[in-house]
Amino acid sequence: MREITVDVIIKNIKEMCIESNCYVSKDILESIRQYKQKEKSPIGMEILTQIEQNAEIAKNKIMPMCQDTGMAVIFCEIGQDVHIVGGYITDAINEGVRQGYKEGYLRKSVVRDPFFRENTKDNTPAIIYYDMVPGNDIKITIAPKGFGSENMSQVSMLKPADGIDGAKKTIIDIVDSAGGNACPPMIVGVGIGGTFEKAAFLAKKALLRPVGVNSNIDYVKDMEIELLDNINKSGIGPGGLGGVTTALAVNIETYPTHIAGLPVAVNISCHATRHSTRVI
Ligand code: SF4
């Protein structure tokens, strides 16, 4: 049994909160660079250039790339041969978020109650998902999620007879209705199968897959390519101001489901799709 102290978890979470908010990932920057070769709209091109400049400033000044530094969504894969010592892991993760958002001057966006809306002033609690896996380490991914795009996300419970065409239509309709509100260019995370909440979880997890990496299931890969192509024909464009760069990626994750259902969840993310992963 390997022991990991909560102090190590706190320190890593704190650093990851800051780094994920201040450094745009290489895959997104590379994708924007490629789309600039294809973008025909002058204003669309200008927005893509501004996103690149903004990323450079954020990196050099260690400032958040967007004012909405999101809710801290954290995925923890805990090796079953790990013993966490010195405290409770959930408390440690929230302490890391508290310290990271304070020290990084990141906006605190969490309210304690969905109706009475008093700000918790430290961006806690985080949204935390735990998964037990083989091994003796802990893999932590932090994905701060802004709500401009989160608010445009939906779950749709289709009928099995709706099939692949029905799922594609649902995804396109949800992206169309998001339009410029989701701060395009978007990353479209899709979860298909499971239950109502599993589909939503898969859609969130799909956003972690690097831009430019397709599913290793052939028909899913074909769906991803076709949907991305069609979404980019919508004309929504960068910032919703028109152009061919509406989405950088459509990432689909699937899971077995019930004979009576076909859940489809679409979690829309924006050009500030952030994540940072460490293994401790
Ligand atoms: S949707 Fe994304 S880019 Fe837009 S304000 Fe929110 S975090 Fe920032």
Description:
The protein is an alpha/beta fold and 280 residues long. The protein has two domains: 2-20 and 65-145, 2-Layer Sandwich (Dihydrodipicolinate Reductase, domain 2), CATH 3.30.360; 148-275, no CATH class. The protein is built from eight helices and ten strands. The chain has helices at residues 6-22, 26-38, 42-61, 89-103, 147-150, 163-178, 196-206, 218-231, and strands spanning 2-5, 71-79, 82-85, 127-133, 138-145, 154-158, 186-194, 247-257, 262-269, 276-279. Strands 4-2-5-10 form a four-stranded mixed beta sheet. A four-stranded mixed beta sheet has the order 6-9-7-8. Strands 1-3 form a two-stranded parallel ribbon. The protein is globular, with a radius of gyration of 19 Å. The model has no long low-confidence stretch (mean pLDDT 98). Iron/sulfur cluster binds next to helix 5.
Distance between the termini: 14 Å
Low-confidence stretches: none
Cofactors and ligands? iron/sulfur cluster
Question: Considering DSSP H and I runs of 4 or more, what fraction of the residues is helical?
Answer: 25-40%
- Class by alpha and beta content: alpha/beta
Per DSSP E runs of 2 or more residues, the count of β-strands stands at 10
Number of domains: 2
User: Helix-strand pattern, N to C?
Assistant: EHHHEEHEEHEHEHHEEE
The neighbouring-strand order within the major sheet is 4-2-5-10
The coarse overall form would be globular
Largest sheet: 4 strands, mixed
> Number of DSSP helices?
8
Radius of gyration: 19 Å
Strand content: 15-25%
Arithmetic mean of pLDDT: 98
